[in-house]
Amino acid sequence: MVDNVDIEEQDPLSEEPELTKEEEAKMGYCEKLHYHISRWMLPEHARDKYLERANCCPPPIFIILISIGELAVFIYYAVWKPQKQWVTLEDGIWNSPLSYKPERREEAWRFLSYMFVHAGVEHVLGNLIMQLVLGIPLELVHKGFEVGMVYLSGVLAGSLASSIFDPLNALVGASGGVYALMGGYFMNAIVNFREMIPLLGIFRILLIVVIVLTDMGFALYRRFLTHENGLKVSFVAHIGGGVAGMTIGYVFFSSYNQKLLKDPRFWLCIVGYILFLVFAALFNIFLSPAP
């Protein structure tokens, strides 16, 4: 006698079988893309629901538009303005109304607009590559609103953290947003590790750790060990963006197909982030040592 087995009672942590070549050949290009994205980004229990409603419309428009904007601003200052900043940062770039400068922090838009200005070709290319590699798959799964909220929360947290912990130095670059994406993706990889393909989970975590350590190493070197002329750029935005990603990003990127408003983690992260914003605003108004 053969026992009946309820599919829902099977071990939810068992590894999902891969498609055969015949099954994959029957898929369209968009279906193949979403199938592989789901195996990379989502735990097994969420993949079927994602694949049921996945499509390429709308495309990952937020991260693409942000990247185009950042590249356009870089080209504008490198080609049409006499900045000569193809390789490294020069003092002239600080005249931009987009850069964050502690003495101009009353111009509140600078706490966000600094993400469009970069300190050289290696700076802008590094940020663009990372945010496209991470942001496009994230936006295919979680759509533009969620990715946009995480990205911008990292940009804002980066500049505010810099204004508190490194208040006398200026700030340029989209590293706060990039680190927010990495922070949220890292937490997703940690939380859902047992439900992902083991080697894939280990690879994702190690890749993010290596990238962060390498980038932070260069940032600290440029900040404290180089003796180049010009203004020093704060590195605290990396940390602020990463923390925002591990809180705001963690909730958005680990709660696929769930109602966030009923999740206490959502409110804990939102309230914590708002309290940080209020404290940072009060610090900049009443306590900052910057002129």
TrEMBL record:
Domain of life of the native organism: Eukaryota
GO BP term (any one): proteolysis
UniProt-annotated location(s): Membrane
Transmembrane segments: 61-79, 111-136, 148-165, 171-190, 202-221, 233-253, 265-287
Broad EC category: hydrolase
Biased composition (Acidic residues): 1-17
Alphabetized InterPro entries for the sequence: Peptidase_S54_rhomboid_dom, Peptidase_S54_rhomboid_met, Rhomboid-like_sf, Rhomboid_IM_Serine_Proteases
Any one cellular-component term (Gene Ontology): membrane
Family: Belongs to the peptidase S54 family.
Protein name: Rhomboid-related protein 2
